[in-house]
Amino acid sequence: MSGLKLFRTDTTNSDVTEVVPHLAEVEADVQRLVEEHMEVLLGVRFLASEYGTGPVHGGRIDSLGLDENGSPVIVEYKRGVDAGVINQGLFYLAWLMDHRAEFEHLVRGRLGVMAASQVLWSGPRLVCIAGDFTRYDVHAVREHRRSIDLVRYRLFGSDLLGLETVASVGGGIQVARRGRRRATARAAVDVQGGAMVELADAVDEALLGLGDGVNRVERKQYRAYQRLRNFACLCPPQRTKLLVYLKVDPKDVDLVPGFTRDVSGLGHHGTGDLEVQLRTPRDVARAQDLFRASYAAA
Question: What is the pTM of this model?
Fold first, then answer.
């Protein structure tokens, strides 16, 4: 991957050996590896492989899935560099938007009625996984009003896979920050009070400011912050606190009663096993390291 070198260390002999990256022998090897572990690698539940789009459209979508927030996901693969992968994916994305009932039928058959009823059509996603992309590819995705992720892969040795997000554009799921915050504040101020709204704005700024390529997904029950996959979920303000769920292993955190809680195995809105309770701006500052850890893990 660009700029990344991987070494295997041998402490016994005080030596290091570089693990040379390489591409897959064929495109199908990449597709098979990702499909078998799609939820772990991309945060996407696998639905179908080589999905036919009918005789009129005349295509086959490499992989179909549903992400953590209920957004439909198309994944297209290329072994190396291919200038057509983005346009091909957008072609299939247009088909998908015209065949919503067919997709929901597929979800219903694979994941159940509940999942099918919660498909989020405001932000369908295209994920392109390839050996590399050109600067023209990166520019192209920024010109489209769609949610597109360009992901570079490399294989290291026989048992290591590296994925690197080259570009990520939110499209329909990312909105103008200031306008959305003001709208949220107006809607919530009569219920939660100005202090909680201001606290929610501070959390929003902190999470969006962690780095490039952070997309925000609005659901009724929570707001997700996504970097290829969710790394934080912010629930609507309660009377005296905000709840944020992070993709941090609670076992790696010194839990503080009233501030952090292990919710693995407990039902809650959003995704993540670490619950962070925020009541004051000082709590937001205390949570910064946890925010950064969750962002890095994504």
Answer: 0.83
